[in-house]
């Protein structure tokens, strides 16, 4: 029964994500056969979703001019560069909840955030590495354990629930970065290519 509820949640989340934002390039979906277990199917879909979010997030990061990395909508909000690194830190850190040790990039990412001045190339490199780490971390979970309940930090959860939380958080951050881009008058590439609105 728990697997049915988990799969229903996954399907609703993926449907909402796909309806809200088209992919940069259509990727073939993995075939669903009678031999595909619910956990294997869920993992494939979540890994695919992380990959789609990575493509769009990195596209925005590459398309924003370097000077916008220190820009923030208001003084209480993160700058564009800080938002990218905030996303990267979550990708590096969250897999620890299902037993994957964070890489040294997690510490480097935090230290770099504290420095203040953010370089575009370095931020994009961190962002890419973080999504790669997250996808590999999801793939590393045995299918048989994906819906199992574990006690983590005085709470009960499944790897599926923690991965889904990460996918949702990354999607929310992508939405924020689309807003940042639009506020600067820059249209994301999947909306017709990089150009400044009104030009």
Structure description:
- With 199 residues, this protein is mainly alpha-helical.
- The chain has one domain: Up-down Bundle (Four Helix Bundle (Hemerythrin (Met), subunit A)), CATH 1.20.120.450.
- The protein is 58% helix and 5% strand.
- The protein has 6 helices and 4 strands, in the order αααααββαββ.
- It has helices spanning 2-20, 38-63, 80-93, 105-115, 120-139, 159-183; strands spanning 150-152, 155-157, 186-187, 195-196.
- The strands form 2 sheets. Strands 1-2 form a two-stranded antiparallel sheet. A two-stranded antiparallel ribbon has the order 3-4.
- Helix 2 packs antiparallel against helix 5, helix 3 (80-93) packs antiparallel against helix 4 (105-115) and helix 3 (80-93) packs antiparallel against helix 6 (159-183).
- The model is unreliable at 4-12 and 195-199 (pLDDT under 50).
Termini Cα gap: 54 Å
Helix content: 55-70%
Question: Approximately how much beta-strand content do the residues carry?
Answer: 5-15%
What general outline do the C-alpha atoms trace?
globular
CATH class: Mainly Alpha
The total domain count is: 1
Largest sheet: 2 strands, antiparallel
CATH superfamily: dinb family like domain
Alpha carbon gyration radius = 18 Å
CATH fold topology: Four Helix Bundle (Hemerythrin (Met), subunit A)
Order of strands, widest sheet:
1-2
Task: Based on the coordinates given, report the CATH architecture.
Answer: Up-down Bundle
């Amino acid at each position: 029964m728990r697997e049915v509820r988990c799969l229903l949640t996954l399907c609703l989340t993926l449907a909402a994500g796909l309806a809200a934002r088209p992919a940069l390039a259509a990727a073939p979906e993995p075939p669903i056969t009678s031999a595909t277990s619910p956990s294997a199917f869920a993992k494939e879909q979540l890994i695919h979703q992380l990959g789609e979010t990575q493509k769009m997030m990195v596209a925005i990061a590459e398309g924003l001019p370097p000077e916008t990395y220190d820009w923030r909508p208001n003084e209480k909000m993160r700058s564009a560069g800080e938002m990218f690194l905030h996303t990267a830190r979550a990708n590096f850190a969250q897999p620890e909840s299902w037993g994957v040790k964070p890489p040294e990039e997690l510490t480097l990412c935090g230290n770099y955030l504290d420095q203040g001045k953010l370089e575009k190339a370095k931020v994009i490199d961190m962002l890419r590495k973080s999504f790669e780490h997250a996808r590999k971390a999801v793939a590393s979970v045995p299918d048989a354990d994906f819906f199992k309940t574990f006690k983590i930090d005085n709470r009960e959860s499944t790897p599926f629930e923690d991965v889904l939380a990460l996918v949702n958080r990354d999607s929310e951050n992508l939405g924020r970065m689309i807003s940042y881009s639009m506020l600067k008058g820059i249209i994301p590439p999947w909306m017709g290519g990089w150009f400044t609105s009104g030009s």
